[in-house]
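User: Some background: our group keeps a shared notebook of sequences we're curious about, and every so often someone picks one and asks for a predicted structure to add to the entry. Today it's my turn. The entry only has the sequence so far, pasted here. Could you supply the structure so I can complete it?
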Amino acid sequence: MECSKQTITGSWTVGDLTANHKLPSRTLFLAVCAVGIGGTFQYGYNVSIINAPTEHIHKFLNETWSSRYQTELNPSLLTLLWSVIASIFSLGGLCGAHIGGSMAIRLGRKGALLVNNFIAILASILMGISFPTGLFELLMVGRFLIGVNTGVGICVQPLYIGEVAPKHLRGAMAMGSSIFLTGGILTGQIIGLRELLGGEKYWPFLLSSSCFPALAQLFFLPWFPESPRYLLIDRGDEMKCTKALKRFHGPLHYQEEMEDIQRECFALNGEKPKKPWQLFGDRSVKWQLITVIVMTMGQQLSGINAIYFYASYIFKQAGIPAEKIPYVTLGTGACECLTALTCGLLIDYMGRRLLIIGGYTLMSFWCIVLTFSLTYQELYPWVPYLSMASIFAFILSFGLGPGGITNTLTAELFTQSSRPAAYMIGGSVSWLSFFTIGMLFPFIVNGLKQYCFVVFLVESLLVACFIFFVIPETKNKTFLEIKREFQHLNFRGRIKEKEAELCERRQLCNEC
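Assistant: Of course. Here's the predicted structure to add to the notebook entry:
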């Protein structure tokens, strides 16, 4: 594969045009929506909808077991079966994260997302027919497959968006992943209300409704081009790359992006996409990889799961009737959507560092407030309301920082040959952390009670300190410029050796 060495002249015109072209084109905006509806939306939606039919699925398991074996289902076995149905989703996500990068390389970013929808449709069919056939095993297989679908989507969607976005809009457009994720959570909470599909008769339709976002993406996404960076750097097809850029940015505004892609192509010099294990041995991406692992673990272990665990208890203590709590819980989903939208508006103005460090710092503060308010929950009548306010404030802080920017930075810290493998590693770490916190969280809460937030306080502060000392600001920088920012960390020892050698040579020259 060779890149054309012809560069486009007239940079002053491009600069003038870019200055007057701050908003994304309609094609770019719609492309983000098309990849989002079948990507991170599926993750948020399928995490959310499983909560509503819990009691109905328990009843289904009991009745199926009784009719199949003519005996009552043991309560401990019922708990085990339900745990498998709930947690196998994360194992599927881990598998999806492992294959998502490879699919993005072989099929292209757009092709991988299109093929991924057939997994979601198959999963929806299996979950939908589990109840009429009396086979709860199909429910488990369906949950595993929808986990695979979301694992691939979370890996490939931000990859596509990060590559098609112009650098001055990369942060805002990458926030599309978080906006659709939180939108999926909120939609799942609404659809899961007992007045809609959360009732006993309709829960199979609720679980099989995941096919609708998949069908929507299969209909809309083919109308949009493949990632221009993938077309030129990975496929060497300059003609299709130019055509795609013109579709995304218009015939008058695509030149600067073309020059940026050509520069990256020249710098990579035909380097093939790397495998995940190759990144661990590549010193040039050492600190970028450490950053992705730390941020991904920090996002999952930040305490957001503890917040949702305590939400119902705190709402009940505040005097909200039990039957009204699901409607109040919608407020948490709305909060996440609001912060994702707000972060999307602020990220290219305030920068990544300020928002993510500020988010973790605020989360640490609200951990302290929650620890005290939960400790003295019954001492004063106004304390439960402070706890309720702290829950919403914590969610707002999470959405403004780690909830929205982690995926954005993963796309920005790596060049084309390393980016798919980085998303595979980041996705694997995310799903493993998600599974681990799901397994350990009940023990942490039972052992520490409200003091579990002290653990999350320490974790949030440590991640904030790491980001402050390690991660440079990436706003309005090309992928090559960001890579150069990390060179002093990745090659610190070699740089010092060269500096010492230069000093020694100068000293010898002066003596001569």
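Suggested note for the entry: The CA atoms of residues 121 and 211 lie 5 Å apart. The two ends are 50 Å apart (CA to CA).
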